[in-house]
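Entry:
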Amino acid sequence: MVDVMVSKNEEKVTFRQQFNCCKNCRCPNFGLTESSDYLAESHQLGYPALHCKACGSYPPLVDSHSVNLIVEERAKLHLSKAPCGCNHCEPGFFLGPTAGVKRYGKTGANSQRYQCRQCQSVFTQVHVKGTDQLCRLFNFLSLGHSPQKIMQQLSIAPKIYYQLLQRLFHCLRFYSRQQETAVLTRKFIAIHTESNVHEFSEQKRVWALCSSEAESGYVLLHTHNQTQLQLNNSVYYQQQASTMLPSLSDSPIVDALKRRYQLTLNRYHFEDLHYGPTSHLRGTQIIQPSVCAYAHFQLLFGFTQQSDSCHHYIEHESSIRGAALMSCVDEIKHKTAEVYYIYRHPRTQSDMGSAGNKVGWWNDRWFPADFGAFCGITSGQQVPAPIELPRPLACHLFFEHLEQNMSKQLKSASSVDALFEINRALFNYVICDDNGQTPSMRLGCSDSPLSGTALVTAAVAAVNADHIDKFKA
């Protein structure tokens, strides 16, 4: 079972381990995994669920063990401090205080060795070479060139191409996380999350979640529902007909919301999201979108731990609602975290009352906003304060960027992971808006737009720097 440590003011806490509990924020059993009010497995509504007799809710059962394994896999992929530090003990960016190392002699090639203060394992810091070649690779990738074309342009064999791709991925991930940890120390953070289906050749379709820092539009995390782990069959995607909710932007907003609630009711259960047939990437299994969401929001827990309070703004999609709530149960109870549904819609001034409109089976109250409407999932206020979402299109713009810039000729999960992360760096640090600003500038990670060459050079330099001072216990 996963036991990844997270730090807040040097205190250590763990990711949530169990997800089968009442998810009604107004129920006294909210977030409790043990209660005399629970019927542990009910099939009253036709699917295996936990029944909370206190509020009458039937949250679908979640395979907590599989979620924990996926969290561990994704933490290593997205937040690892490798190649700097001990691979076994270093908790990763946003995941806790460093394990600490000490100098431990040198190799025959005069490279510095280090010993982990926690597990005593010895390792040599990786020194990344070939910066010019990595810069050229990044610039070709930013133009959306296919792997075959890039191999021809660089005059390299496929094996070398994929090695360089992984090297570039790790450098850019390390550099961006290093910058983020330096600026995400604010008292309040708001994170906006939306989903999308990425389509590749040979009917490979990947469901993904994107989370951006709400004020800057900086993409913090992008994960998808393909895993290299062998898990219980119950968590695998069943490839049924699509149950995705349409945007209905051409309808009045209240009618559009009512239609979305009705389509959700047509599902087997609220979290049972399908996006039609797909084929998996080489070496992977496809997991249910809701299982992916639980892991995604657990990682976001690391980003919010340094803040006194946080907001999650999530798209109107029931399959990610429970995941968002489970990422901040204690904070919700202490009123330092709130979760809101948002719905982007080109509404008119007269199609939604300022006092809100009750919509759906729980009479959710929706309120007008510049971007469309919002609904307080956790807020106990009858008329919650208007939420600020300065860049409501941030996730959508990143999805569009991937559609325009990523080659569709992809087969392996490792390549997809690398290219998603490389494009996250490209989107955040290189691409400017109409005002000449990048998301990284708005977040405070950079003072000016970076060229591809400047970004890669800085990333390689960050990895190659002597990190002994940063890793002292």
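The radius of gyration is 23 Å.
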